[in-house]
Design goal:
This protein has about 200 residues and is mainly alpha-helical. The chain folds into two domains: about 1-50; about 55-170, no CATH class. About 50% of the residues lie in helices and about 5% in strands. The chain contains six helices and three strands. Bound molecules: zinc ion (ZN).
Length: about 200
């Protein structure tokens, strides 16, 4: 009787040990799966979140190209004459505008933002035929097509702004937030050689 009880207890203990071991193994497998998922997700993110600064040189003219081109131009699209100072202002504005747009994306990445929109404080007679104020692009659009980052041409007034989801849509747009990319991909963008004099 006593031996039977002992055997019963041992058998019960073995069963408990097996159950605990099975539970731990299962938990470990789940943890491994989760950690792999995190690595995979962060892997995608690290690609998507790579600063566009590195690729921008392949889609925008270089400083030398711009200087060379401007040295051969005497008027802007409205036939306003361009002095040497005007040309220097155009180069300065191009650099500042590009730097601001790149900073905006880098700052947006720190906060994990997904949406950016085009914004104009001043009229832009070149862009108005191409880019509508308030049209948005996603971070992924910018990753795939860094040419979507302004400036689009010399003297471009277009700005790229992060959408924090807090700005009132009416303040940022004329006709509501609409995607800039259509089903065919990137709509035509202005030729960078269009010059709009800085006033
Ligand atoms: Zn423009």
């Amino acid at each position: 009787m006593f031996i039977t009880a002992i055997i019963g207890i041992i058998f019960f203990l073995v069963l408990i040990l097996l159950a605990v071991r099975f539970g731990l193994t299962k938990q470990k497998a789940e943890e491994e799966r989760e950690s792999q998922a995190v690595i995979h997700t962060s892997g995608i993110y690290s690609i998507m979140r790579k600063s566009p600064r590195e690729d921008i040189g392949t889609v925008k003219p270089s400083r030398a190209e711009i200087s060379q081109y401007l040295s051969e131009q005497n008027v802007d699209i409205d036939k306003n004459s361009l002095s040497q100072a005007d040309k220097e202002a155009l180069i300065h504005q191009w650099n500042t505008s590009l730097e601001n747009a790149l900073n905006e994306v880098e700052e947006g990445d720190k906060k994990g933002l997904e949406f950016y929109y085009y914004y104009f404080e001043n009229n832009d007679r070149v862009c108005e035929k191409y880019v509508t104020k308030g049209c948005f692009v996603t971070r992924q659009d910018l990753f795939k097509h860094p040419e979507l980052i302004p400036p689009f041409h010399l003297g471009c007034r277009c700005m790229l702004k992060c959408h924090h989801g807090m700005e009132k849509i009416k303040d940022t747009t004329q006709i509501g937030m609409r995607p800039f990319l259509n089903t065919k991909g990137i709509p035509p963008l202005p030729d960078w050689k269009n010059i709009l004099k800085i006033e």
